[in-house]
Structure prediction request, 274 residues.
Amino acid sequence: MEHTVETITCKSALTGAGRDYRLNPYVGCEHACEYCYATYVARWRGQSGPWGSWVQVKTNVAEVLARQLERKAGARIFLSTVCDAYQPVEQEYELTRRCLAVLRHAAIFDPDLRVFLLTKSDLVWRDVDLLTAFPAGTVRVGFSVTTSRDEVAALLEPAAPPPSRRIATARALKEAGVTVGLLINPILPHVTERDLPSLLDAIDDAGLDFVGFDTLHYLRGHVGGKMRRVYRQLGRDACARLRQAQDDPGYEDELRRRVGELTAGRSITVESRF
Prediction:
């Protein structure tokens, strides 16, 4: 897929209220995940191309962030929500790295600052020097995964690094001293359901710090033509399970019980459930 990259400036780097803020160095995401909940942003930003075909680069985001942090002591910052902070364009523009440098500097003077960084990319390893320089307990990294099988991920997340590389990088970050875990989300019918045991085993094997789960409410609002086309490639059983999950009002309760059973007795900390 061809990509359109547009450089823009921003008036604000952080969105949110109270202590909870979101930081998006980019708008749009080249990873083009078929189930992404952020596709609504295309309409909001006036973009006509398909999700994954365009990215807006906030060239001044680090400078704006530095100014805003002066007035936001104790902020809890989620990086990021409408992009992947380590999508391929980050290799050229390094906005995420620049933002991390600003956040690390701020954390030295603000002991209550907290940063949670979520990504699907092993490019985060490039910034291990910054991540390990944060004060202890300040920064955590989460890797989003939906399957442990690289060949299935290639259908669902066509431009994202395969899950095997994400899990290997999570292990490396953990060994380097970074607090790191996996976010298994969204739990896709038939796909993630089958892979939950292997994903949890990988977390245990790597000694990661936490795991989270979510459906992102994709069943009601995000099962459209793209997802059905992907599921047709996965076979008849996958399509049947997708329809069942979408139509069954008790599906999430069933899934919640399944997650509880699979995590019971493990040493991993479960931080979030849908």
